Amino acid sequence: MRNALGEPKGWLNGLYELVLKNARVRFDEGLVNIGVRDGKIVEISHDRLRCESEIDVRGKLVTAPFVNPHLHLCKVYTFEKIGDDALRLYQQEKMLDASEAIRIAAKVKKWYSDDVIFENGKRALAEAVKHGCLYVRAFVDTDTLAGLTAVKAVLRLKKTFAGLVHLQVVAFPQEGVLKDPGAEELVWKAMELGCDVVGGIPWIERSAEDSRLHVDKMFEIAKAFDKDVAMLTDDAGNSNLRTTGYLARKTIAENMVGRSSAHHARALSLYPKNVLTPLMQLLKKADVSVISNPHTGPLHAPVKQLLKHGINVALGQDDIADAYYPFGRNKMTEIAFLAAHLLRMMSLNEVEKVFDMVTAKAAKAMRLVSYGLETGGNADFVILDASSVYEAVWNQSEPILVIKDGKIIYRREERTELKFED
Known about the structure:
Layout: E1 16-24, E2 31-37, E3 40-45, E4 51-56, E5 62-63, E6 66-71, H1 79-82, H2 85-90, H3 98-105, H4 114-130, E7 133-141, H5 149-160, E8 166-172, H6 183-193, E9 197-200, H7 208-225, E10 228-233, H8 243-253, E11 260-264, H9 273-286, E12 289-292, H10 303-308, E13 313-315, H11 332-342, H12 348-356, H13 360-365, E14 381-384, H14 389-395, E15 399-404, E16 407-411
Parallel strand pairs: 1-4, 6-7, 7-8, 8-9, 9-10, 10-11, 11-12, 12-13
Antiparallel strand pairs: 1-2, 2-3, 5-14, 14-15, 15-16
Helix pairs in contact: 4-5, 6-7, 7-8, 8-9, 11-12, 11-14
């Protein structure tokens, strides 16, 4: 047997820079040792491994980092500034006034500035690191109200956090494209500035024809820059919304299978079976990932049905203390805990699936390369204060250590244990 470098496995192999000793991992019933060299996982073994530095994790759960594929980073920590009006409308039982909520929430852009967005975003990404979330897809308002202010601030954050967080920046025309003349040109400019993904919100347009044109225009930009597409589709309590299906058909037509994601898609929960079933078959064919954020609104995509049809489904944070959701801290075990309740996924097997939706399935949605706890993958780890996935979700366990490229980037301070009288 040989390791990822072709060396004989076990004690006689080469010297590792770091070994995680006595690690509990999801794919092995026993404890393993993980050998790291040059920022890569070289060996996962039951054998003793020679190393320069060793960390005994004492049976704690070691996992690949958490992934947040949906966060409106330019809006974080603005809830107290914008007030309750948009929140009240967005949280109504059937979400019939979601578009009005978006109109009211747009007022926050009056206070947009590079420094404010940068400092708020810096705080949110620091929280992400502390909670072991090292991959974030950030939606950034790119429209005639925000201009390119938010884009430039978040691209600055991407550079600042380059050694800590893998940040994908989405040029997102929040107010529409046909509905907001000038937004299309701004998305083009945002991609020229260095954004990673082309966004969209086609359901917000004034007609079905305009919604389809919205999708067409954003795919044109994505094709020009060879970038992926991430769109908020059907995010309201209207069973007649059909932008998720059009996104899937466009993905196939443009030979971009596997390169688009549908976010929210809440109206799917209202579709009759004869509409939902063929749509799920289409999503599977187009390999469209569906990103659900069930904690941020009273409707959510039919996650269990999507999973049964083999569709890649992930969970996102969506919002952190903004006009749509007053909580959040970029902690994906918290998102998994909330989703387990809202989706009624509480059996041991289902909790594992929920955990996948904030790790491997979210990584697939973001098309991450070399992600995962396997030989040849990036030496990115989260050591949780838990001995199982069930315990980690149950307690929303905190990381003891967070490791990026084989280097410790966060270490939890020593916990004070309660002392009792004998």
